[in-house]
Write a structure and sequence with these properties.
With 181 residues, this protein is an alpha+beta fold. Helix content is 19%, strand content 39%. The strands form 2 sheets. Strands 3-2-7-8-9-10-11-12 form an 8-stranded antiparallel β-sheet, covered by helices on one side.
């Protein structure tokens, strides 16, 4: 993810700092930025808890929010928060480097970056890994026992819970019914 204008970092101390021209490297989970002299620097991972990328043309629009969770398995990973509210769809992209076979005709070895996306449900800073984006995985992660109200909403909105957009729409509904209880 890259931003052409300034945006805030939320530090673990609670402070907020703004930097222009920033990139989040999914392979290393490092945050790179350019200073006023266009020199590249890397921020110390432990200092940053949250990153908000802001649209370069409209500073009131957020292009992406990335956060670190206190989950011991993923202490250094940034997760993308895909919706607001108490219960959120959270996405993590892990990139690995794979060395390909030697190509004798080209006389070279190639390397390839391979991204792998994992989805989670985040509630109160706790992550539950989803086995996939589907109805059973999501309802199981949310521990919904009485599905009558949920089934009615899914049917009336023609939502199959099969992609990010549908799950985000459902979680907006879910967050409102949880607030009412």
């Amino acid at each position: 993810m890259e931003s052409g204008c300034s945006f805030p970092f939320y530090r673990s101390t609670g402070n907020k700092i703004k930097l222009p021209k920033v990139k989040l490297n999914f392979y290393t989970n490092d945050v790179h930025y350019l200073n006023e002299k266009n020199e590249e620097f890397t921020l110390v991972k432990k200092l940053i808890d949250k990153i908000v990328f802001i649209d370069a043309t409209d500073s009131s629009k957020s292009m992406g929010v990335f956060k670190r969770f206190k989950d011991p398995e993923y202490t250094h990973e940034f997760f993308e928060i895909l919706n607001g509210g108490n219960t959120q769809l959270v996405k993590m992209v892990q990139v690995t480097l794979r060395k390909m076979d030697y190509n004798q005709y080209r006389n070279e070895s190639r390397n390839r970056f391979i991204p792998k996306t994992k989805y989670f449900i985040g509630t109160n800073n706790v992550l539950v890994r989803l086995s996939g984006l589907n109805k059973s995985a999501i309802l199981s992660a949310l521990q919904i026992i009485d599905t009558h109200e949920v089934d009615e909403w899914l049917k009336s909105s023609k939502n199959k819970l099969k992609n990010e957009k549908e799950v985000i729409g459902f979680l907006s509904f879910y967050n409102t019914i949880i607030k009412q209880r």
